[in-house]
Amino acid sequence: MKAHQPMDPTADASLRGERGFSLVELTVGIVFFAFGTLGMAAMTAGLQRQTTLAALKTERNAALISAVEEVRSFDFDSLAAGGHTAGQFAVNWTVQANGRYVKDVQIVTAGPGLKFGSSGAYVDMAVIDTVDYQVIRP
Length: 138
Prior knowledge:
The chain is α+β, with helices and mostly antiparallel strands. It contains 1 helix and 4 strands; from the N terminus they run H-E-E-E-E. A 4-stranded antiparallel sheet has the order 1-2-3-4. The chain is rod-shaped. The model has no long low-confidence stretch (mean pLDDT 87).
């Protein structure tokens, strides 16, 4: 039986210059892969922040809508100031007569929300929103 001899790369013309990747090519490939991975990680963190902010805005709007629905459920003559808690938001409203047929309702929502400062947007735990609403006598 004949022992296996290592193949001489110069023996076959088709193998010349085909010895794999050079160190420079490998380094460039790793650098591109690293930048791509870091970019995806940064994008993921940004998407997570946007998702959290969207959920906070949705919860705040749901608290406001529940207050508007509660105000609308009252009879015109029995409509008075009130309030309730919706999740992590305190919602209060005041009522003021504006003639015989209209009542002005001011709804105030307090709780966590988005604020804008000199360094950009951030979440503050004590944001107050005010909405004015009118109820007309049927």
